[in-house]
Predict the 3D structure of the following.
Amino acid sequence: MGLKTKILLILVAVFVVIQLFQSPKNNTAPETSADISRVYPMSPNVKATLRKSCYDCHSNSTHYPWYSYIQPFGWWLSSHIEEGKEELNLSQFKDYSARRRKSRLKSMAESIEDGSMPLSSYTFIHNGAKLRDQDRKLLLNWIDSVRASLN
Ligand code: HEC
């Protein structure tokens, strides 16, 4: 057996073995009373847009795409979810202090405005999560009106 074949076989074996290590799934509850949509009224459009573009990493209910069952993509998504939820958990928005809610709403607007969210590494493979111009406008208008109501 040549060296190249050996290396290839080892890589295949490693790939097969890492499939056994699935990350725990982040989908505890469909929607709880602490969800941001229960804290601030939003239209079905706003809700659907947040779900499509933000909830996968910023909530307790990720909608898992098929490739998330393949490692190392699943691990990669899991680490985003973990980090994303630390920064902002839309499923637990009610639990935030008034001050934190305000700061989260502000950084949501900023991240949408500057295009840093949703992460481009994610929309690259998950095209459906991309925000179109009208989605961006919709979300920003809604965030603006919520922020105005808090002052
Ligand atoms: C693929 C996962 C993923 C998606 C989808 C995603 N985010 Fe994030 N988000 C992260 C990660 C990871 C972080 C923490 C690291 C960072 O800031 O880059 C983060 C951080 C943030 C922060 C905190 C930034 C700061 O500087 O305080 C905000 C606000 C945010 N995201 C809003 C959003 C909004 C709004 C959407 C939808 C339009 C969204 N994210 C979609 C993964 C994601």
